[in-house]
């Protein structure tokens, strides 16, 4: 780690310049610029602030702004046009390579205060981009944002952490996981800890099982170059879904600052157990979509026939794993985590199934209470029993619903604002990233050894049979 040379306070000095390495890429165009436009619209982008995009395309400021305006019209259509135009005026473009120190140095304005450097790059370039950055004298208090997946396995993540740690203190590093900034995920803190009623029943004595589901209708969206090397488990479970699991299962923090929250999540990750080798076939599933279509009539080719997919890699587009949490609160409770692409419906939710009520009054078939914390649209639903009007012993199912539909910044806007402010609480600490790899590696190994068969499901269906 670099010496704490008295610049610690500077890490939380707001920055007004964000340098995006990979400024022409999908992440920048679909997520970062729209998020920045939202901040401009909400008057939360720094006064006089700018985004400097660095990429290899032969563009100048004007051409980059025109490209960005077209992309913003598509991906940030709900942001008022004047805010999009204002953001475009704040964009600069520098042609160069993210892995060439001279190019990166040339993109940093002279006489500037701290900057944020955002690696919006394929993760195969992280190491060389960080090595290049290490040869650039960044202004004191500058910070680094890195996208996921953070590394390709635990050893790789540890190597990246060590490399980053030579140049940046941990509080200057933002390993972005935008799902942590999703309203329902963030709202888990208030739901669990700002109510008296849930915490006492939030344990193995009362909870039967937890499901964390992230089903997507979208297929590859032109991202085969990345996705075919990642697969569903690395793309979604190693990071986003394990982070949701931690927010559901962690112990109460003693404060809401980044240190307390990340300590609690890291402690929870250390207790998460993947299936034992002999359980892999019953506690994990992998599958990939075959040709099919959506109810709109649009047809979808089989995954293996998608452009740029190498069928010999055997990449899964659906993954399901049942983890356990080896601590006093959760011992014995299955946490089933599942995600897939090209499915028939979008479904993103945490489902907490409680143990059945005592059967004495309403009988053994009374369904248990089920709590559904849904994302997109954000809502909390609790399926409970009452007794019906006709007879006292006739249970009726009712749903208590709270829609969380207040307008507000999207997750990437919160991520960018936190980066500007220097608050890494919504990001992943180095030890969390390594633990998450420790959790999924045995599953990846079992799958690559062929211990779990690759199943199939037609695109547009509910997933492999029985899921
Ligand atoms: O990081 C990723 O997330 C998206 C899902 O998040 P969303 O906020 O865009 O809905 C997923 O489709 C993608 O494969 C993954 O890389």
Overview of the structural elements:
With 467 residues, the protein is an alpha/beta fold. It has 2 domains: 17-147, Rossmann fold, CATH 3.40.50.720; 180-406 and 431-458, Dihydrodipicolinate Reductase, domain 2. It is 34% helix and 22% strand. The strands form 3 sheets. Strands 7, 8, 9, 12, 13, 14, 15, 16, 17 and 19 form a 10-stranded mixed beta sheet that branches. Helix 5 (126-134) links the parallel strand 4 (116-119) and strand 5 (143-146). It is globular and about 75 Å long. The two termini are 46 Å apart. Mean pLDDT is 93; it is low at 1-10. The chain binds ligand LXAUTJHC. The ligand O=C1O[C@H](COP(=O)(O)O)[C@@H](O)[C@H](O)[C@H]1O binds at residues 216, 218, 235.
Short summary:
The chain has 467 residues and is an alpha/beta fold.
Topology:
Layout: E1 17-21, H1 26-41, E2 50-55, H2 61-75, H3 81-89, E3 91-95, H4 101-107, E4 116-119, H5 126-134, E5 143-146, H6 154-167, E6 173-176, H7 183-193, E7 207-215, H8 224-249, H9 258-271, E8 272-273, H10 280-283, E9 284-290, E10 292-293, E11 299-300, E12 318-325, E13 335-340, E14 347-354, H11 359-362, E15 370-374, E16 379-387, E17 395-403, H12 411-421, E18 427-428, H13 430-448, E19 454-458
Parallel strand pairs: 1-2, 1-4, 2-3, 4-5, 5-6, 7-13, 9-19
Antiparallel strand pairs: 6-18, 7-14, 8-12, 9-12, 10-11, 12-13, 14-15, 15-16, 16-17
Helix pairs in contact: 1-2, 1-3, 1-12, 2-3, 4-5, 5-6, 6-13, 8-9, 8-13, 9-13
The structure holds ligand LXAUTJHC.
InterPro entries: G6P_DH (IPR001282), G6P_DH_C (IPR022675), G6P_DH_NAD-bd (IPR022674), NAD(P)-bd_dom_sf (IPR036291)
Pfam family, one: G6PD_C
Pathway: Carbohydrate degradation; pentose phosphate pathway; D-ribulose 5-phosphate from D-glucose 6-phosphate (oxidative stage): step 1/3
């Amino acid at each position: 780690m670099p010496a704490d040379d008295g610049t610690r306070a500077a890490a939380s000095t707001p920055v007004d310049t964000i340098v995006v390495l990979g400024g022409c890429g999908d992440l920048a165009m679909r997520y970062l610029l729209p998020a920045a436009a939202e901040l401009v619209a909400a008057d939360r982008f720094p006064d006089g602030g700018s985004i400097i995009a660095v990429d290899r395309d032969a563009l100048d400021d004007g051409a980059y702004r025109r490209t960005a305006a077209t992309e913003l019209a598509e991906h940030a259509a709900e942001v008022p046009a004047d805010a999009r135009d204002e953001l475009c005026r704040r964009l600069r473009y520098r042609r160069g390579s993210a892995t060439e120190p001279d190019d990166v140095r040339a993109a940093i304005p002279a006489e500037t205060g701290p900057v944020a450097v955002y690696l919006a790059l394929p993760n195969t370039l992280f190491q060389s981009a960080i090595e290049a950055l290490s040869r650039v004298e960044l202004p004191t208090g500058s910070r680094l944002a890195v996208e996921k997946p953070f590394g390709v396995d635990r050893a790789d993540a540890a190597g990246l952490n060590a490399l980053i740690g030579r140049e940046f203190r941990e509080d200057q590093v933002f390993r972005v996981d935008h799902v942590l900034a999703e309203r329902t995920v963030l709202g888990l803190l208030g739901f669990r800890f700002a109510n008296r009623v849930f915490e006492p029943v939030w344990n193995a004595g009362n909870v039967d099982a937890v499901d964390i589901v992230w089903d997507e209708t979208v297929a590859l969206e032109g991202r085969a170059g990345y996705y075919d090397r990642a697969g569903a488990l690395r793309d979604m479970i190693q990071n986003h879904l394990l982070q949701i699991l931690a927010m559901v299962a962690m112990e109460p923090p003693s404060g809401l600052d980044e240190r307390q929250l990340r300590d609690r999540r890291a402690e929870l990750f250390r207790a998460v157990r993947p299936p034992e080798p002999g359980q892999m076939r019953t506690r994990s599933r992998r599958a990939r979509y075959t040709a099919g279509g959506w109810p709109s009539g649009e047809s979808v080719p089989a995954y293996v026939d998608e452009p740029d997919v190498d069928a010999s890699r055997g990449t899964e587009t659906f993954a399901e794993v049942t983890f356990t949490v080896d601590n006093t609160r959760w011992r014995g409770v299955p946490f089933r985590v599942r995600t897939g692409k090209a499915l028939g419906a979008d479904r993103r939710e945490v489902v907490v199934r409680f143990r059945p009520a005592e059967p004495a009054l309403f009988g053994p078939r009374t369904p248990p209470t089920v709590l559904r914390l849904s994302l997109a649209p954000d809502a909390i639903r609790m399926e409970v029993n009452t007794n019906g009007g006709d007879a006292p012993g006739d249970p009726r199912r009712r749903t208590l619903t709270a829609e969380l539909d207040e307008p507000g910044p999207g997750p990437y806007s919160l991520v960018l604002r936190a980066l500007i402010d220097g608050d890494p609480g919504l990001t992943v600490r180095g030890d969390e990233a390594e633990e998450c790899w420790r959790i999924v590696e045995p599953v990846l190994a079992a799958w690559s050894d062929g211990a779990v068969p690759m199943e199939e499901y037609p695109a547009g269906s509910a997933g492999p049979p029985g899921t």
